[in-house]
Amino acid sequence: MERAYAACEQMARTHYENFPVASRLLPGGIRRHIAALYAFARVADDIADEGVASPDDRRARLRAWQQRLHVAATDHTGESSADDRESLIMMAIGHSIRSLDLPLALFDDLLSAFGQDTTTSRYDSWDDVLDYCRRSANPVGRLVLRIAGYREPALDRSADALCTALQLTNFWQDFGRDWRVGRLYVPREAQLACGASEQELMTERISGAWARTIQACVAVTERRFEEGRSVCEGVRGLLGLELKLTWLGGSRVLEQIERRRFDLFVHRPTLATTDAPSLLWRAFRWPALARP
Q1: Does residue 111 sit in the same domain as residue 8?
Q2: CATH of the domain at 157
Q3: What is the pLDDT of residues 122-170, one digit of tens each?
Q4: What is the per-residue pLDDT across 40-75, written as a single tens digit (0 to 9) for each?
Q5: Domain total for the chain?
Q6: Burial class of 70 by CB neighbour count within 10 A (0 to 12, 13 to 18, 19+)
Q7: Are residues 157 and 76 in the same domain?
Q8: Measured on CA atoms in the order 181, 184, 185, 186, is the torsion positive or negative?
Q9: Of 119, 137, 167, which marks where a domain is finished?
Q10: What is the pTM of this model?
Q11: Please, are residues 175 and 201 in contact by the beta-carbon 8 Å criterion?
């Protein structure tokens, strides 16, 4: 089993530029379970975004990945004789689910969101976008809390808000990149409310109407960040520090998105190494210096 978890940690470090720094410093018993979750999700994400396969093929592979998960959650012998990367990941996540009593429903929600990525490129309403976030981002936050031993409903709700805020921030951060591959996560109701149309985006320029739309999307996201503050304050130790840094970093990126909303086709807002001292200082002085 140690070999399986080692493979997950290696994959998490290699394929996630944002694999939380604090997670690498957590006690091994927690860190390896978080790495297994990241690795499991990475494989599913790769399947959903496989460019050479048809949507039907990708959904079939996601269903097969889900079936393997359900077997691994109840039968520890199913993948034990194989040593390829996917089997090692499945061994590890199956062991994590069994030993920590992690809810399979959260993994199923996560996989349903990956499946939706193969069929849906537009969203009509905020309800539709937030439902996607509920399944694509929120399960990860809840599972991390379960891995760390937290099962309080209030923390779950705050973690949901933080994860949704981070997912929305990523949507606006990747606005130009997503448009170029045919995706648009800004809901149509937000576009219409600000008088923006997709036709304007054909020139890959942000018009005044689209700048107002992005600003409205930022406002929705800011409210989710505010609702997500309490989970940062309710979790102790290094994981609590990680959550604070995640909140601060996400908020800083969102601030950049609003400030540079006219440039989203030519500039992807992101954190720089020069941001690190300020974020660390604010995290250690939380909540007095929490705001970017």
Answers
A1: yes
A2: 1.10.600.10
A3: 999 999 999 999 999 999 999 999 999 999 999 999 999 999 999 999 9
A4: 999 999 999 877 889 999 999 999 999 999 999 997
A5: 2
A6: middle
A7: no
A8: positive
A9: 119
A10: 0.92
A11: no
